[in-house]
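Reviewer 2 asked us to include a model.

Predict the structure of this chain.
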Amino acid sequence: MTDKKFFFKKIENNYDFRRRLEQVHIPGRRNNELKPKADEIEISAKWRIVIPEKSSPLMLNTARDLQDYLQTSMNTPVLLQQVKSLKSVINSKTPAIILATKKDLPGAGKNLTTTRSYRISVSRDCVIACGYDGRGAAQGSYYLEDLMNFREAPFLKIQDVKREPVFSPRMTHSGWGLDQFPDAHLNAMAHYGFDSILVFARGVDNSSVGYLDFNNLVDRAAAHGLDVYFYSYLKSTKHPDEPDAAQYYDSTYGALFKACPRARGIVMVGESVEFPSKDERTTGRPWNAPAENGLPSTKPSPGWWPCRDYPQWVEMVRDSVRKYNPSADIVFWTYNWGGTPEKERLALIKALPNDITLLVTFEMYEKIRQQNICHTCVDYTISFTGPGRYFSSEAKEARRRKIRLYTMCNTGGLTWDFGVVPYEPVPMQWARRHRALLKANKDWGLSGLMESHHFGWWPSFVSELAKWAYWKPGPAADEILKLIAIRDYGRDASRLVLKAWGYWSQAIRSYISTDEDQYGPFRVGPSYPFIFHPKNLHKHLLGKSFSIPSAAHAKFGSRIVVVDYTPLDNKRQSPFSMRIESEIRSLGIMLSLWQKGIECLEQSNSMVPPSKKQAGEHLLNLGLFMRNCIRTAINMKEWWQLNRRLTSAGNRKAILNLLDKIEALGRCEIANAEATIPLVEQDSRLGWEPSMEYMTDSGHLRWKIAQVRSVIDQEIPEYRRIAKL
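Predicted model (structure tokens):
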């Protein structure tokens, strides 16, 4: 066993992770033993940060942020000054970091042509970060921070470089809490290269968590260089053909932008915006509407089919929104019908207006052969790099139609592969996706990214890797990962850390994404219940119907966890009877590789300098938790197999043998859950997800342990009694 209790001295309470999210600049990064090289300058207390006298709130925030960075991370206090003339500062030859826009310094910014682009010029007594606009100046300032962090000192190489972003927007949901965006979290998002946030909208100032002042959010986001996109949860009860449809949509979508006209745009996805389509291939009703005549329908609801009249609906929404914001980005997401026939999907795209944006999920629905079995990528996974054929087909048509193209790609660092972790530390696999996205940019004009869903975003080296990939010019991924490993864990430990990341990046490629796993054991990990299923004897012995306890304030809680594990035989997968053994084998390979990564980190632990110990311990703690999630998934599949065999066992000896195996497996899973408790107590972000809230904290793990013990101590003995074994 490798579950050593050597982690942080202080046990975290639930939500203590937010204290870490509030800390944008890591204290004490400076290595005082380092000296500047001949081609480097040193930022000292003699320097000052200078911005124009009439600066925007964004520029002032950026300057204060850089000042805080130098004090907090580099122990270098500098003054901040607003001046009338930047040229006089440059000519004075007194050491200064100047933050400016192209408008402020036309000469420095003359070759900047793209929003958020910037030029960095470093000379002996002057550092200029000149942006095309305020957002560019901010990104230039963050770039200076990145360079000094890698150097572990306030040293900058003499240079003159221009950099431009590849993608815009780069959208993310909150990782602090569902639809909750404290200023520090907004600041961190800007530092990691995002330029937009997503907030769920049910109506004016009505988010998924209740009242939220949308205009205040727009103001605060803008002060950090971020736009706000609404993610529509608005009702659509009128067909565009109805006489009063225009007035109706003006009272919903129009009202939203009338009240908040500075929002950048709105994202609309089938399942959330269903309208009463007249397409005869659908029910014409929302998915949760009562069945017609009390009879089930064999047709999909409009949210799950590329209806012929969606173009009408999109045009009506577009007109309602642009009445109040003529430049609003109308984003139509085809997520829900990626598995329908290509002919129908492309027919819809061919009919869409070309002044809107098409959003297509990058990897979903792809058919993959693994362990000689065909399976289909479900939402969302990094096990397959992408792009999938669904994305490629729609991207080609969007290119032909000259429709702006975005993708949902999850490169904020997390997918549904693991539901209650902050990020997936598989950087080499993420780098493969980055390269695929950059190729899609060249091939099909992919221009914008949605990088997380309601599972949110956590600042990590994985999203830092994405930031470097999405700017040009930029270094290779392996070069950046080496710099990150040295910076965060020390030069001596970096080799083993990189080796661990390599094992984990290889391991994730053996993950097989299925609906039953991503809504089951992989969604919540070791708190997932193991229900006893002897369904062939007596109704008293049927698996208990219950749900995992969840917080009353959670948006979804346990409602998006299927506790009664049932493999799904459907058109998206090979028959489960064929799949289960191959899935167990594949996850076994994943587990073995994951464990090798853990062993590398354990070896590196003694090499990590004291100032970096906590970062090393957090990474190892995360690795151990994810390993235990893999164990739970394997155990669940074997548990299901044993329970299924029990229902058809024909003699007393076989039944007793199976019951012994079920008991032993239950005890094994109890031990796995027990080993997970100290891991979640050390890191309160583990076991939490914004829309579910806590599902795998110590309380839920103890609940699961009690549930499995009940099976062993009560349900199985009762089974034996009734069966007279």
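Confidence is low (pLDDT under 50) at residues 1-8, 536-544. The chain has 20 helices and 23 strands. We have added this to the supplementary material.
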